[in-house]
């Protein structure tokens, strides 16, 4: 039996609260009962292969698409009943550039200021401030067609931040960016959260989720198949292992006999021993090798990364590695 | 701010955006103005002598035909503007920024209103060019200031109505190419009216169509205001047509805008 809600706990406000979200395109269910809770001021990464429903989730939460069923509250507002209040609290930066290609960078920003009714003075001040912050001052009077991918993405995000949104949706914010631009974008995202903004980002890059997110949800087939911190998720896959390489086949054989466990590969002279990755277990292992009088040429400890998690949870290898 | 105030403010912002884009991308405006000017020259210098003789006035000829045909050319220019508007909004819909507008707390209709008002202004600029060329090739209107103002009014409401209709068409189609083809019948329609030849010269079945299609009362009103022919009930009928087309275009455009896929 489930206990009643704890009433004396300090309530944690969820900036994004989703329950039972469903969305189908024709007969194909893209979101199949999605539940999501993102506390204020944190980064949540939705990780999943193409077609898992990441973009559809962002489209529904940002009021672009109506949901078929489910409850959604963004910044305390009900998505269905108060869409305009939700829109006033959010910003969306998609994988497709949402800038006006015929206007200059500065004009794009001032357009946003006008649409937020900031007033001429304040609008110009804010635009200048954002150009400065996103390192676009030199490009301010050029149209975005002359920008690099990273600059365009920064302008896109800057436009979204004009009205100081409380919740920011980043749909694959670094897809197609070179590693340096990607890291610059990560820094921007971290700064936003430091200011108290809540971020929901979708990504195919495990590295990105690992390095940015407070919590990660693995989306597959329109629902979360796992959720937790990066460390919690890594604990879901069977443990770590120690890989020992030996200078000759005789050493490999002696070690395998002494340890009585692991898989030996005579071709590479490597012995892989499963373990829990703890220092104690490692010391015990080395002691036994010492007792047997075998010396390993080198040793590596392999701990599972999100790749392994992804493979274990979705039955597919990770779709794309960060190109570098 | 009131809802109406917000709608007006946001529409004005969107209008500024569209005008700025029109200045940056003048190709469309030039094409929209150039086509009726080509037609004007064609009808005056190629067909004008013969058609003018057919107008029945003993003094008839090219000079008289210029005066007769200019209102028709102006209406033709408005339909050309409508085609440009359909292309413009279809192109705009391919831009990611429209998805951004939809996620912002702004007056929903302002994107469309900005396009329509921008299109009307663009068309009026084009019309001014056409009138300038018409004056150069011998158009001699006898309108006073008030009649000119009324003529500009008629052109504005006609352009407004066709802009809503073409915005709806541009939203309804899925591609820019289709958006450029769909308003084609609109550009042919002025020829089946009183714009280029008197409807009395047409066979009976065509004549009854020509008399009752929307561009004929618009033409007759313009001709009456600019050159002093009888207007009769044409002005009222013209305004009624424009009001009806505006309303249908507006509702169709809103429905299409809401229904379009997000991005």
Automatic annotation (TrEMBL), chain A:
PANTHER family: ABC TRANSPORTER ATP-BINDING PROTEIN, DOXORUBICIN RESISTANCE ATP-BINDING PROTEIN DRRA. It holds the Pfam family ABC_tran. GO terms for cellular component: plasma membrane. It is found in: Cell membrane. Keywords: Antibiotic resistance, ATP-binding, Cell membrane, Membrane, Nucleotide-binding, Thiamine pyrophosphate, Translocase, Transport. It comes from Geodermatophilus obscurus. One of its GO terms (biological process) is doxorubicin transport. GO terms for molecular function: ATP binding; ATP hydrolysis activity; magnesium ion binding; thiamine pyrophosphate binding. The lineage of its organism: Bacteria, Bacillati, Actinomycetota, Actinomycetes, Geodermatophilales. This is ABC-2 type transport system ATP-binding protein. Belongs to the ABC transporter superfamily. Drug exporter-1 (DrugE1) (TC 3.A.1.105) family. SUPFAM superfamilies: P-loop containing nucleoside triphosphate hydrolases (SSF52540). The keyword ATP-binding applies. Its main location: membrane. Residues 16-246 form the ABC transporter domain. It is a peripheral membrane protein.
UniProtKB/TrEMBL annotation, chain B:
Pfam families: ABC2_membrane. Residues 27-260 form the ABC transmembrane type-2 domain. It comes from the Bacteria. The chain crosses the membrane at residues 25-48, 68-91, 112-136, 148-172, 184-206, 226-253. Keywords: Antibiotic resistance, Cell membrane, Membrane, Transmembrane, Transmembrane helix, Transport. GO terms for cellular component: ATP-binding cassette (ABC) transporter complex. InterPro entries: ABC2_TM, ABC2_TM_bact-type, ABC_2_transport, Nod_factor_ABC_transporter. GO terms for biological process: response to antibiotic. One of its GO terms (molecular function) is ABC-type transporter activity. It is a multi-pass membrane protein. It is found in: Cell membrane; Membrane. Belongs to the ABC-2 integral membrane protein family. This is Transport permease protein. The lineage of its organism: Bacteria, Bacillati, Actinomycetota, Actinomycetes, Geodermatophilales.
């Amino acid at each position: 039996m489930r206990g009643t809600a704890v009433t004396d706990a300090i309530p944690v406000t969820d900036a994004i609260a989703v329950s039972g979200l469903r969305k189908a395109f024709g007969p194909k269910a893209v979101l199949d009962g999605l539940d999501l809770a993102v506390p204020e001021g944190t980064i949540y990464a939705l990780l999943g292969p193409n077609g898992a429903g990441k973009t559809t989730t962002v489209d529904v939460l940002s009021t672009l698409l109506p949901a078929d069923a489910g409850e959604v509250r963004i910044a305390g507002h009900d998505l269905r009943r108060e869409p305009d209040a939700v829109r006033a609290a959010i910003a969306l930066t998609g994988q497709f550039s949402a800038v006006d290609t015929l206007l200059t960078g500065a004009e794009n920003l001032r357009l946003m200021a006008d649409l937020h009714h900031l007033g001429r003075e304040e609008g110009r001040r804010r635009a200048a401030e954002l150009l400065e912050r996103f390192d676009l001052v030199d490009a301010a009077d050029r149209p975005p067609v002359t920008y690099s991918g990273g600059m365009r993405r920064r302008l896109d995000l800057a436009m979204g931040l004009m009205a100081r949104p409380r919740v920011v949706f980043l749909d694959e914010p670094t897809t197609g960016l070179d590693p340096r631009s990607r890291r610059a974008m990560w820094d921007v995202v971290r700064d936003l959260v430091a200011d108290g903004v809540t971020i929901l980002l979708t990504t195919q890059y495990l590295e990105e989720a690992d390095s940015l997110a407070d919590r990660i949800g693995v989306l597959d087939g329109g629902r979360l198949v796992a959720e937790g911190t990066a460390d919690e998720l890594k604990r879901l896959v069977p443990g770590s292992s120690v890989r020992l390489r030996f200078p000759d086949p005789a050493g490999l054989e002696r070690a395998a006999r002494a340890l009585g466990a692991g898989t030996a590969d005579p071709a590479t002279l490597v012995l892989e021993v499963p373990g829990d990755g703890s220092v104690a277990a490692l010391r015990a292992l080395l002691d036994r090798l010492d007792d047997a009088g075998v010396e390993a040429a080198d040793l590596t400890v392999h701990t599972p990364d999100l790749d392994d998690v992804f493979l274990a949870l979705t039955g597919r290898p990770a779709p794309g590695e960060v190109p570098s | 701010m009131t809802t109406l105030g917000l709608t007006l403010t946001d529409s004005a912002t969107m209008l500024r955006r569209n005008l700025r884009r029109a200045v940056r991308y003048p190709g469309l405006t030039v094409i929209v103005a150039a086509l009726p000017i080509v037609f004007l020259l064609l009808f005056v210098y190629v067909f004008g002598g013969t058609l003018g003789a057919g107008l029945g006035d003993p003094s008839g000829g090219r000079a008289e035909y210029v005066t007769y045909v200019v209102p028709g050319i102006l209406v033709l220019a408005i339909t050309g503007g409508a085609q440009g508007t359909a292309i413009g909004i279809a192109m705009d819909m391919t831009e990611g920024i429209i998805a951004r507008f939809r996620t912002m707390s702004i007056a929903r209709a302002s994107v469309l209103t900005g396009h329509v008002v921008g299109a009307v202004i663009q068309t009026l600029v084009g019309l001014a060019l056409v009138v300038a060329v018409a004056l150069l090739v011998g158009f001699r209107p006898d309108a006073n200031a008030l009649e000119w103002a009324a003529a500009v009014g008629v052109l504005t409401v006609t352009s407004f109505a066709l802009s809503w209709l073409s915005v709806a068409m541009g939203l309804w189609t899925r591609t820019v190419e289709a958006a450029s083809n769909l308003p084609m019948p609109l550009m042919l329609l002025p020829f089946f009216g009183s714009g280029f030849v008197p409807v009395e010269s047409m066979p009976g079945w065509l004549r009854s169509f020509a008399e009752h299609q929307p561009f004929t009362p618009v033409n007759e009103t313009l001709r009456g205001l600019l050159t002093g022919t009888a207007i009769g009930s044409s002005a009222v009928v013209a305004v009624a047509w424009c009001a009806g087309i505006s309303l249908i275009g507006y509702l169709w455009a809103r429905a299409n805008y809401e229904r379009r896929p997000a991005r």
